[in-house]
């Protein structure tokens, strides 16, 4: 392993199973972990998050090697892996926990994320406004073990539905 320090990024883009699988395959990503963030409840369970009472979003924590993958390029993967115009939903999944959100760890990440969101909004690629929130990262709560690398364990490349 190289001596480069890993950086972290955290994204919500719908059901974390498919989002994790997408990021896990990106060259330069060293680790992906699914979990919950953005809410008030400490150590929430999947059931609590699904019930909508925690304020948490299903997220993927991505650890990446910045010498091999820039945050800018990582964000491009984020924009491409879901529909950023949908409010509190992706595909058949509906609720706050499925919202589109970028949780930033540094002021630089915030600046890059805001610039990309604005550029995407102005690009005309989508007819609806970009709904993605950009918020400071708070506590991350690792999801139950059966959620980790769920699609890989099932031998699937994507969530059906």
What does this structure look like?
- The mean pLDDT is 93.
- The strands form two sheets. A six-stranded mixed beta sheet has the order 7-6-1-3-2-8, with helices on one face. Strands 4-5 form a two-stranded antiparallel ribbon.
- The chain has one domain: Peptide Methionine Sulfoxide Reductase, Chain A (2-Layer Sandwich).
- It is 29% helix and 25% strand.
- It is α+β, with helices and mostly antiparallel strands.
- It has helices spanning 16-24, 46-50, 71-80, 107-123, 150-154, and strands at 7-13, 29-37, 57-64, 89-90, 93-94, 100-104, 133-136, 140-142.
- Poorly predicted runs of 5 or more residues: none
Give a short account of the largest sheet: 6 strands, mixed
The CATH first-level class comes to Alpha Beta
User: Helix segment count?
Assistant: 5
Strand order of the largest sheet: 7-6-1-3-2-8
Structural class: alpha+beta
Got a strand count? 8
Fill in the CATH topology. Answer: Peptide Methionine Sulfoxide Reductase, Chain A
Shape: globular
Order of helices and strands: EHEHEHEEEHEEH
Strand content: 15-25%
In helices, the fraction of residues equals 25-40%
Q: What is the CA-CA span between the terminal residues?
A: 38 Å
- The CATH H-level homologous superfamily: Peptide methionine sulphoxide reductase MsrA
Mean pLDDT, all residues: 93
Summed up, the domain count is 1
Any idea what the CATH architecture is?
Answer: 2-Layer Sandwich
Supply Rg.
15 Å
């Amino acid at each position: 392993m190289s001596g480069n320090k890993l950086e972290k990024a955290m994204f919500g883009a719908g059901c974390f199973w498919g989002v994790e699988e997408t990021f896990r395959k990106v060259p330069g990503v060293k680790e992906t972990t699914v979990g919950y963030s953005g809410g008030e409840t400490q150590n929430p369970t999947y059931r609590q998050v699904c019930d909508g009472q925690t304020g948490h979003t299903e997220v993927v924590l991505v650890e990446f090697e910045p010498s091999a993958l820039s945050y800018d390029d990582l964000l491009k993967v984020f924009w491409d892996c879901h529909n950023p115009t949908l409010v509190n939903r992706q595909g058949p999944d509906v609720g706050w926990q499925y919202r589109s959100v970028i949780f930033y760890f540094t002021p630089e990440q915030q600046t890059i994320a805001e610039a990309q969101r604005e550029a995407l909004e102005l690009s005309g690629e989508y007819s609806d406004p970009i709904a993605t929130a950009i918020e400071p990262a708070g506590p991350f709560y690792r999801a139950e073990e059966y959620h980790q690398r769920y699609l890989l364990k099932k031998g699937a490349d994507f969530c059906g539905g």
